[in-house]
Amino acid sequence: MNCSLASIEFSAVLIHVIKIVVLVFVVILPMVAYSVWAERKVSAIIQDRVGPNRVGIPFTKISLAGLGQPIADGVKFLLKEDLTPGHVNKLYFWLAPALTMVPAILTCAVLPFGSELFGEKMVVADLNVGPLFIFAIASLSVYGIVLAGWSSNSKYPFLGGIRSSSQMISYEISLGLSLVPVLLIFGELNLSTIVEEQSKNGWLLLPLWGEGAVWNGGWDRFFLFFPACIAFIVFTTSIFAETNRLPFDLPECETELVAGYHTEYSSMKFALFFLGEYAAMIIGSGLIVTLFLGGWSLPFGWDAGLMKMAGNPEQVPWWLGLMHIATFLGKVIAFIIFFIWVRWTLPRFRYDQLMKLGWIVFFELALLNIFITAGILILTRP
Amino acid sequence: MVASKDSGENLVSVQVDDHWISVPRGTRMIEACKQAAAEVPHYCYHPKLTSPGNCRMCLVEMGMPPRPSPGEEPELDADGHAKINWMPRPVIACANTVVDGMGIRTQSLLAKECRQGVMEFLLINHPLDCPICDQAGECTLQEYSVEHGNGQSRFLESKVKKPKNVEIGPRIRLDDERCVLCSRCVRFSKEVVDDDVFGFVDRGSHSVLTVHPDRKLENNYSLNTVDICPVGALTSNDFRFKMRVWFMRETKSLCTGCARGCNTVVGSREGKIYRQSPRENNDVNSAWMCDTGRMEYHQLENPARLTEPMIKRGKKHRTVDWPEAICRAARDLTKFKGEQLAIIASGRMTNEELYLTRTLAESLQPGVVDIVKREGEGDDYLSHCDKNPNVNGARKVLKIRSPGSKLKSIRKRIVEDKIKALLVIGEDLIDCGFTEGELSSLQCLVSSHIIANPTAKMSHVVLPGAGYAEKRGSMINATGRLQRLNKAIDPPGQSREDWEILHELNRAVDGCDGVTELADVFTQMASTLSIFKGLSLSRIGDLGVDVMDTGETVPLLEREARRVSEGLIVG
Amino acid sequence: MPIVVQRPRLTIAEKCYFPAIMKGLRITLGHAIRILLRKKKVTMQYPEAKWDDHLPEHYRGAPALVTDEHDRERCVSCQLCEFICPPRAITIIPEEIPAGDEWQKVEKRPKIFDIDMIRCIYCGMCEEVCPEQAIFLRKDYAITGVSREEMVHDKKKLYEIGGRREGLVNKWNELK
After folding, report:
1. DSSP conformation letters of B104-165
2. How far B370 CA sits from the closest chain C CA (Å)?
């Protein structure tokens, strides 16, 4: 292959670097920090409390409803004593937090977080195998937890690690299988294309415009709504399990395992686990939004209408691009709040219930769903 | 009478609270009740003193079988005892003796009402200053008030004012308002120590205890009056306001002030001793001890206590850890053999320590082993003229024939440079006539003591030991009784019990010796020395066992025995 | 005898969790909305707003020593509070009141009276046991310090908090 350094366009590299930097450091990381704040705030209002409302701008009395709290927490984590117990396996003990955080951030490379801005697609890597890439990378994050549990050389982390690995492997199956019907419906593995398709012809769970609407002859989408719902439920639940969130947070369930796999961790290493969990939650939400709820697209075919208003059908205007980004973030935030809401509502599953649900209910349901979807597709799209 | 036929010649049958018991003829009613586990409350009665019967607290109901008229058979009850006719008025149990067929009721309504009445009278003028009273917690007035008294006072008038906080002697404070006029202190001073300084003056409610106007209570046994005072009228200046009695842990131990070996109870709390008081042992010290002996524990509070092992380097001592100090001492001592080495032990050491010194001597083979003689003033009561508590132990264990006789020759041979190394345990040689010049001419001086004395300053290796209340062990007193010393508190800082130091030295010099705890040392000693045969440290017991006959007697005990035989006291 | 607890028989709707999950979500959402609409107020903003005026009469705050109407320290260091104190927070070293002192006839007073407020559990046993009515639990509850030493209230500090208390027992006055 004729691939030399000169052949790579410098400006393209620069644009990608800007996208990565902006996405990771301006969008994802602050979102992670503030989802912690949201977690505390939402849990507080659910429990008739106030939540963090003190920390604001330092040396002033301005508290900004406690919005300074995540920054203070971060500073605290950085300043805390970083303790490495004497009995641990140092290399893996240090590697584990990174292995938890990195895959979570890597997966956001293929998520389209907007349509176009100044003619540039709002996705870091517009891969044609987006979902597969996500599964490949996301399944790596189990290594972080297993390594943390094992290298801590202590029984609670060890049990947490064991639980986590078996839970994540189990739910990865239903996660993958539940996605197959969606890919069948769109006939596409590129996430950007999937979103564009939903923008034009109705979201997977809201087929009310374009070719997806029944009155426009979208009977296939009408019949496919049911399998899509099943896929959505199985996928969402599996994401809960994959991110170790309540009601499936058995790897770190404090009533049994103290703090699970991160019992022996302190300071920023602990914070990385903590943030990794939230990052995975954000990516999970982004994935659900992208696949089922139209990603960055506005509902009811407004995208097409606004494009018409702008005049140029080829070029998405900058204000619409920004609006798309805002839409995507809005949907993700709504989903994060849903995640939090569920956490502060449901009790934790027992471990055998969790495995039973994964292997006996979701696995079969997802498998069956593939055949149902395939059957409907054969019948409605001859 | 039917009952007395079955019992022995000198036993009589007495009914106490409906139960018949047999007691020796001539027993006081109060003692008979005690044997029947029906303790009668009392203030003035003390078994070692005469019974004047002036507190009236021991009132009980008494009854006798009626004397049958000629030809009449006595009426018998179900047990076959003659039926008792109860007397309408109570009698004091402390001064009356039992007779055959007598009945005593300690829990009858009459007896209870008598006690309640006496308690009420006693509390009429009592100041109720328990919060500041040292006796609180071991005060019979408090105890009986709870058990037998009224919950509240009916007395509305002003209480009688009496002298408070009076210095009646160098060691004793008197509070007359608290006094219940039991006269125990009066009788003790008069009968036991022949120092009749106390007396009552004035009458009725205004009657007070006082000392003779020209005299003070300053005999060497004065603090015993504090012990026998049932209330807080007499308090010890030494113990006054130092610690409440309920905080103190009591350890049964010995006084090591002289060869008498009075049995004591050491009261301590959180590593500090607050008082030492006598413990009854009728073969050693009756129930008393001398004031000098009580103050012995103050030597443990010396600010110059050694707390860390030290090695002299150049002219200065520097603190080291135990293994280093022991190692250095053993290395230095083993350099010298035979005539070059001498060991000076102490008559204050326990048998176990002396035994370990003996085994050390067996491996080091010193030319001389001796202890320091410690003569002082004795008296006609308890205090012994030999101030070493365990000379008999040193004689038996360390085979010292004449204590202190070799010290002169040791000095001479140090000057002649024949003795080059000296191991001193528990003694200050400067105090025994050695000069600093003599000690500084030694090539090796290893000393163990509890205080940084001049000998320690001259020593090359200083090993801090434990005081007498900081260690366990056994000692043989002047009359040949083997008794046990117990540990009340921990030795300060890094200092150790002396037997541990000697044991470590032994191990460093000679290797393993099969000893892991103090009892092992005694066991080894018992297998070596005939006088300890069949004994172990635990078998000595709290009161000790006689192991030698020294021919000595205790004057105070002899007088007490005489008074018992005269029927003056119970004993 | 073992008690066998029968598992409840679940209907199919119950088995698939959804109704229960929805019910739970509704309940928590209800709470959240009530709080957001400020229909319910449960939390007090502590340092700015305080409950001090509403503290009940029997509230147990920091223990403190008090003096009587003649400014005599009531405590005679009987050490009963030291004895009764469950967490052993109190340390007392008594001393004799020297001759010539106005209250010499009381004879005894504390030389050192320390209460370790890190240990204190505010149980009020000391107040209950005190025969001289010398120690009281005040309503102070915000006891803070930056070192362990600072958290030990010494005699001076204890009298500072306690102040003077009149009436009560008159054991050591002229009558006695």
Report:
1. EESSSHHHHHHHHHHHHHHHHS----GGG-TTTTS-HHHHHHHHHS-SS----SPPPP---S
2. 45
> Which of B511, B537, B564 is the last residue before a domain boundary?
B511
Pairwise CA distance, residues A19 & A25, whole Å? 10
Which of C12, C31, C34 best probes binding to A when mutated, by most A CB atoms within 10 angstroms? C31
Beta-carbon separation of C31 and A344 below 8 A: no
Indicate the fold that domain C53-162 takes in CATH. Answer: Alpha-Beta Plaits (3.30.70)
B to C contact (≥3 Cβ pairs closer than 8 Å): yes
Give chain A positions within 8 Å (CB) of C21: 342, 345-346
Going by the DSSP 8-state scheme, the letter that residue B490 receives in this structure is P
Q: ipTM strictly over 0.85?
A: no
Q: How far is A379 from chain C (nearest CA, A)?
A: 30
Nearest to C24 among A47, A49, A346 (CB): A346
CB contact residues (below 8 A), chain A span 169-198, against chain C:
none
Provide the domain count of chain B. Answer: 3
Binary contact (B241, C76; C-beta < 8 A) = no
Of the candidates B404, B310, B381, B391, the one whose C-alpha atom is nearest the C-alpha of residue B560 is: B381
Cα distances (Å, whole numbers) of residue C21 to A240, A357, B231, B242, C8: 14, 15, 75, 69, 18
| B335 and B284 co-located in one domain | no
The answer to whether residue B32 is domain-embedded is yes
Digit-by-digit pLDDT tens for chain B (571 residues) are 344 444 456 899 999 999 999 999 889 999 999 999 999 999 999 999 999 999 999 999 999 988 888 888 878 877 778 888 999 999 999 999 999 999 999 999 999 999 999 999 999 889 888 999 999 999 999 999 999 988 888 888 888 989 999 999 999 999 999 999 999 999 999 999 999 999 999 998 899 999 999 999 999 999 999 999 999 999 999 999 999 999 999 999 999 999 999 999 999 999 999 999 999 999 999 999 999 999 999 999 999 999 999 999 888 999 999 999 999 999 999 998 888 999 999 999 999 999 999 999 998 888 899 999 998 998 999 999 999 999 999 999 998 888 888 888 999 999 988 899 999 999 999 888 888 888 888 899 999 999 999 999 989 999 999 999 999 999 999 999 999 999 999 999 999 999 999 999 999 988 777 788 999 999 999 999 999 999 999 999 999 999 999 889 898 999 999 999 998 998 8
